[in-house]
Each structure stands twice: as structure tokens, then as C-alpha cells.
């Protein structure tokens, strides 16, 4: 999978609420209603990640879930990171997690 251009990344991030670029990584922070729902949120994304064979960095702190996406094998951002960010947004909807700013 090829690296995305700066322009491709910027344009696609406009359609992803709560995500921002930090160099070779895209990041977001979500708040889940409860710790258990935060874990369920992570569990749903874990299943998607295994299916895609593309895995996020995850930091869980009580009801706060922080995500960092990058394609390690390419050393930057690819379409897989954008796709996984969309799947995270869907899992958030299913578990009541909200973008945190
Ligand atoms: C062998 C396997 O395909 C690789 O280790 C995969 C697994 N998941 C991955 N996830 C991410 N985010 N980047 C990778 O380069 C990557 N590589």
C-alpha cells in the first residue's frame, strides 16, 4: 500500500470528525459513557483491525480512549489508516463513545 500525499491526507481528514494529523500518525480521543463501554468500543475495533490486518495504537485511561494510526511497514500514512479511522467512528456510534476535543 503506497503512502498518501499531504493533500490526500488533508482532504480525507476533513470527512473524519475528531481526527488530526501529527506527522506520520493520525490521532483521535474519544470518551465512552462507562469504562465497560470503552472496552466494548476497543473490542469492536480490535475485531476490525484483525480482519484488516492493520492495527491501531490504543491508550485506555478509564473512559478515555486515545487512538494513533500509522502504517508501520510503510513508515507513514496509507489508505488503511483512513479506512481504520472510519471503522473506529462506526464502533464509537455503536457503543456511545463521543469524540473528545
Ligand atoms: C505481518 C503483518 O502483515 C504486519 O505485521 C502488519 C500487521 N499490522 C499492522 N498494522 C499497522 N498499523 N501497520 C503495519 O505495518 C502492520 N503490519
Characterization of the model:
The protein is α+β, with helices and mostly antiparallel strands. The chain has a single domain (6-99), classed as 2-Layer Sandwich (Gyrase A, domain 2), CATH 3.30.1360. 43% of the residues lie in helices and 23% in strands. The chain has three helices and five strands. Strands 1, 2, 3, 4 and 5 form a five-stranded antiparallel sheet that branches. Helix 2 (35-52) packs antiparallel against helix 3 (79-95). It starts with 5 loop residues before the first helix and ends with a strand. The mean pLDDT is 98. The site of the ligand C[C@H](O)[C@H](O)[C@H]1CNC2=NC(N)=NC(=O)C2=N1 has 7 residues, from loops.
Q: Count of helical segments? A: 3
> Would you state the CATH class?
Alpha Beta
Global geometry = globular
* Strand element count: 5
Q: CATH homologous superfamily, by name?
A: Transcriptional coactivator/pterin dehydratase
Can you name the CATH architecture? Answer: 2-Layer Sandwich
Tag the structure with descriptive keywords.
alpha+beta; binds the ligand C[C@H](O)[C@H](O)[C@H]1CNC2=NC(N)=NC(=O)C2=N1; 5-stranded antiparallel β-sheet; Gyrase A, domain 2; 101 residues; globular
What's this, in brief?
It is built from 3 helices and 5 strands; from the N terminus they run αββαββαβ. With 101 residues, it is an alpha+beta fold.
Helix/strand layout:
Elements: H1 6-13, E1 20-22, E2 25-31, H2 35-52, E3 57-61, E4 64-69, H3 79-95, E5 98-99
Antiparallel strand pairs: 1-2, 2-4, 2-5, 3-4
This protein binds the ligand C[C@H](O)[C@H](O)[C@H]1CNC2=NC(N)=NC(=O)C2=N1.
Ligand H2B binds at residues 53-55, 70-73.
Amino acid at each position: 500500500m503506497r503512502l498518501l500525499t499531504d493533500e490526500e491526507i488533508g482532504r480525507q481528514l476533513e470527512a473524519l470528525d475528531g481526527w488530526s494529523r501529527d506527522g506520520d500518525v493520525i490521532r483521535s480521543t474519544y470518551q465512552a459513557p462507562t469504562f465497560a463501554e470503552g472496552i466494548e468500543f476497543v473490542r469492536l475495533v480490535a475485531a476490525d483491525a484483525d480482519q484488516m490486518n492493520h492495527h491501531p495504537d490504543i491508550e485506555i485511561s478509564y473512559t478515555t480512549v486515545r487512538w494513533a494510526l500509522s502504517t508501520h511497514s510503510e513508515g507513514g500514512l496509507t489508505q488503511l489508516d483512513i479506512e481504520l479511522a472510519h471503522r473506529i467512528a462506526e464502533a464509537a456510534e455503536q457503543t456511545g463513545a463521543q469524540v473528545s476535543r
